[in-house]
Task: structure prediction
Amino acid sequence: MARVDHSAGQAQMKVTDAGRGHLVVKISGELDIVSASYFDDQIAAFLGRAADRVDLDLSELEFMDSSGIAVLLRISNQFGPLQVRGAKPLVRRVVEVTGLTAILRLDADVP
Amino acid sequence: MTLGTNSQPGVDISPVMAIGGVGAAQTESEGAPAGATRALEEAHAVDPDEPRPKRLGAHRLPLVVLLFGCVVTALLVWASSSANAGNDHRLLKLQVRQAASILGAVIPSIETPLTAAYDVSMATNNVDEFSQVLKPDVGSAGLIISASLWQISPGPPRSLVVVGSPPLLATDGEATSFLGNVHEGSPLKVTPILHGPSPRIGYAETPPGYGNNDVVYAEIALPPHQKAVIPQSSAFSDLHFALYLGHKVDPSELLEKTGSLTGYTAMASVPVGDSALILVGTSTAPLAGGLSAALPWFVALFGAALAIVGAVTTEYLVRRRQFAEGLATENASLYLEQRTISETLQRSLLPEEIPRLTGVDIAVRYVPGVGGTEVGGDWYDVIDTGDGCAYFFVGDVSGRGLGAASTMAYLRHALRAYAAQGGGPATILAKLANLAGQTSGGHFATVLCGFIDIERHILTVACAGHFAPLIMDEDGIRYLDISVGSPIGVEPAAGPSETTITVGTRASVVAFTDGLVERRGESLDLGLSRLANAVSSGSAKMDDLLGHLLADLTPMGSDDDIAILGVQWQG
Result:
């Protein structure tokens, strides 16, 4: 529908293999109700990979809402609690409000 | 509010389609089928087979184009044919004038031999010379049929010598009056038509230089029955004409004519002595040429062809447009129907009726997201324990579509079952997390579980990944400070803890889902403080307050679904 502005809320996902089964997922842009729905195929492909440890790099994620949380939770459900690096306050707040700090471990919470 | 939708295709679909609320629950207490059937009926109200109001006159457009083309063609035909006729008329006038001037030149050919013969007879003083000189020019071979010399004074006119046949003038007995009026210096005098075995006209003149005694007179023959023949080789072979004697057209003075004069005629007159010849002519063939005459036909054919092509093209375009409009309307109604089915499904999964509780006013709202046709996973529920207490739930299953909706229904009914077993909100949510952990279908859900003791003004809340409720009482407006557990369906589950507070006499509690406060590109805290501000400026009655919040925070509707539940103590 016309009301959904596809030009806004674009998000990119990039996976880096740090070696020894350690993957870093970098999500940048805006992860919201619109862009999250366009992420499904990429996430599904990623979930098929084997990894011992997955970290999230959110340093270039400008915005996220609770639909974005769903994307992160699909990853954590597969690979267990995730270390989250560089989340901006706006993103951190969403994680805190949804009570997910135990699963999406924000880097400031990690000693 | 009821299960209303705007059934007009193409019109913006009303974003706010709230159901429930205590009032709504009362008016629709007949049960689930009533509400569901009604929504489906409304979906059918936009049946694409229903006759649509057609664009006025669109089907007449080809006819209008055809008529317009015909009118333009007719005008062009008229213009070209009148230009052609104008040319023809101008050329006819020229030809008739030319023919008349040639006729005028005949006069000297009569006059010159007569005066020359008279000059000779006077010089030789012998009237016989007159006839000698004229003889070769008079007779059937020449133009002059009869020539004669008359003495008109003294005494009555008498013929001195006659060459050729006897003059008809003499037998008419009009010689005296006619010849008596001829004087020296007066122009050539012309008789009226002289009727005899064959008609003639006569010319008389007193040759200059010899006084008024003698008159020379000649008669020329007119064609039998005034029927003139123009040789095919003549420059005027295309002309039909009539030649009259006199200054105006008088049928009795018709000298000769060819055929009948029909259609446009031109007239020219040429002076002949004291009289005149009038030539009236018409053309038997297009003088301006065949192409000029055929031009109007070419214009008519070409114009008619253009008009028909224009009309056919217009018809084609009109049909294509109507087809496209029909398709658009059909798509709109299909979209609306699908949307309505989604909403119907969603609403059938939501409680039909919110229990009415003594001492509190409870209102609810569900508004589907404006973006898509897929059913969402937001819900609310209220359970009356029957002992002056109640549970309330607000939840949101991640994602959209049937999967989210069925997960939502599953969680909602599980919560009702756990609530029936009793226990605090934290216990209920822990049971739910345990259940969902075993049967997680890829969806997760945020749930707020509240428990109220109405009489004692006690509110207990536990929260699994959900927004804390907004509290408004004598102490002000604030979000309840609670510890948030992880959402349902997320492993490992962090069990929520309970928060219990005592609220003021007319306290209000508002629980909601993310669609109400989240706005793209904006901080969550901004949305939360906007909600708090809207609550502070809202109405006292809970149902009105929820309407106010929706109108204030999502005036254009929200991309995401919205569920809101409000509880207000009455005293």
In short: The mean pLDDT of chain A is 82. Chain A touches chain B through 33 residues (CB under 8 Å).
